[in-house]
Amino acid sequence: GNSVTQMEGPVTLSEEAFLTINCTYTATGYPSLFWYVQYPGEGLQLLLKATKADDKGSNKGFEATYRKETTSFHLEKGSVQVSDSAVYFCALSDAGGTSYGKLTFGQGTILTVHP
Amino acid sequence: DARVTQTPRDKVTEMGQEVTMRCQPILGHNTVFWYRQTMMQGLELLAYFRNRAPLDDSGMPKDRFSAEMPDATLATLKIQPSEPRDSAVYFCASGTNSNQPQHFGDGTRLSIL
Fold first, then answer.
1. How far is CA A102 from the centre of its chain?
2. Do A101 and B102 make contact, defined as CB atoms within 8 angstroms?
3. Residues of A in contact with B97 (CB under 8 A)
4. I need a labelling partner for A67 at 20 to 30 A (CA). Which of A111, B27, B52, B61 fits?
C-alpha cells in the first residue's frame, strides 16, 4: 500500500535560517503530492502541491519538487519566519480512479522558529 | 473564500453519552472525509463518502461510530456510547478528485470524561 515518511521532528530554527523537511513516499502509479500546514488550533491548510514528476510546487516562499527517481517531495524555504511555526504534513493522493482523492499522510513535523 | 464548516467547535461530555459532530462541505465538493487526530496516532482516516455514498469506513470502530450524509450539504459523525479513548480532534474535509487538494474544517475538539 501507499506510505509517506517524513523526517523526525521537532525542528527548531532561528529566524532567517534555511529550512528543509524531508519527505519520501511509496506508491504505485503516479500520485499527486501535497504539503499541508497546521497552525495551532486550526485545521490543515494546503501549502503547495505537485501533480506530476519534476513539477515544482511553491507558495509563501516554500518550495517542493516532485522527484520520481528518488520518490521524494522535500519541503524547503530559504528564510523562515517566526510565523512559520506550525506542523507540516506531507501527503500523497492515489492516482487511481476509485480513490477520489483519498490522502495518505506522513506523521507530521513540528517546526518552531525562534526570533 | 469557501470553507468547510464543522460544529460544534468544542465538546465536553461524560462517558456513555451520544456525541454528534456535523460538517458542511464546500458547495460543489462531492467527496467528504472524516479524520481523527491524536498525539499518539497522528491523523487517521475514519471514513469517506463520494456523492453521499460511503466508500470506505474501515478506519472506524463499527460498534460505536457511524457516519452518514443525509444530504449533499451535511455530513455527520456519531459516537454512541462515547468512551474516554475517543477524546481527540475530529476533522472533516471535502474535495473533488485526486489531483485537487482536500479542504479541511477547523475541527471538533472532543473530550470524553
1. 16
2. yes
3. 100-101
4. A111
